[in-house]
Design a protein that fits this description.
Layout (H helix, E strand, L loop, with lengths): L1 H13 L5 H11 L6 H13 L3 H10 L11 H10 L26 H5 L3
């Protein structure tokens, strides 16, 4: 825990121009160590109750089981799951294999663009 506090202190004090999103990402990654209480609880809920990552995060936040800064966002959890940094596999999470990343298509609005030709 002391190492996490040092890293956060460095991030917050280095430069005032560091955006809040960078600090948010750093907090999420620091709180995801496989020894953290939240990750242990998350793995237990997924393996015994077959919960999704979304359900675990929502339940933990709603019932305030952990400090708010110790609960990472769902997107970070799915990214870390696919990177293999969690003590569970994508096969343990029921919704992980159904989630697909969709490519965004750029649509040409011809009626709009034709007036500028």
């Amino acid at each position: 825990m002391a190492q996490e506090d040092v890293i956060l202190g460095i991030l917050l004090n280095v430069d005032s121009k560091i955006s809040k999103s960078i600090v948010h990402v750093a907090i999420n990654l620091i709180s995801l160590s496989s020894n953290s209480e939240f990750v242990k609880w998350l793995a237990k809920q997924i393996k015994t109750r077959k919960w999704s990552l979304d359900a675990c995060v929502g339940y933990a936040r709603k019932h305030e089981l952990f400090a708010a800064d110790k609960i990472p966002c769902t997107k970070t959890l799915y990214s870390e799951l696919w990177a293999g940094n969690l003590p569970i596999t994508p096969f343990d999470v029921p919704a992980a294999l159904r989630r697909t990343t969709k490519a965004h298509k750029v649509r040409r609005i011809s009626a709009f663009l034709d007036q500028y030709r």
